[in-house]
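Reading a protein record of the kind used here takes only a little practice. The record below shows the convention in full.

——
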Amino acid sequence: MQEDFYDNATCKSVTNTTRPQTYGNDRRKARNHRRRRCLVPITVCLGILCLLLIAVITLQHFQAATKQGYLWGPDGLFMSNEEKSWSDSRQYCRDRGADLVIINTEEKQRHISSFVKDKVWIGLSDKENESNMKWVDNSPMNRGFWAPGEPNNYQSRREDCIELNPSKQILENWNDLLCSEKRKAICEK
């Protein structure tokens, strides 16, 4: 009779009775695994969004600074992006709360020469008194980094303003020039 019972019975689910049942635990593990699988893409997306936000903020900062025509460096220096006469370049710096750079140490000369790519005005001239070089703060020039043969007032021209020429050797790259020539400028706060 038992045989008839087993022959007629239909099993919808067969469980192994020799091991402890873990159906509920398996279900929880599967649900937790699905949650973890969802957290990974969410975390990655949030990370990407944060990076994009940082990039946008940084880009806006640099665009705003370059629209003003200058970008302050951590050393208090910035370079103009327009070529102007020495006097106009000085006014450009002054309009931004600065003045043309004063280079009175070898360290500063090396630093500025390391990042300048174009000929630039510095804050040295003898406009007031020929052959009496003074910085824009009226202090005298104690040390110069002149290119060989400079200053020379070439062909008796009044070359009263000083440029830094980065194509020359670092400690020999100053040149006297007509103040009306157009150069970019290094400004300093």
User: Anything to note?
Assistant: Confidence is low (pLDDT under 50) at residues 5-16. The chain is about 40% helix and 15% strand. The first strand starts at residue 77 and ends at 79.
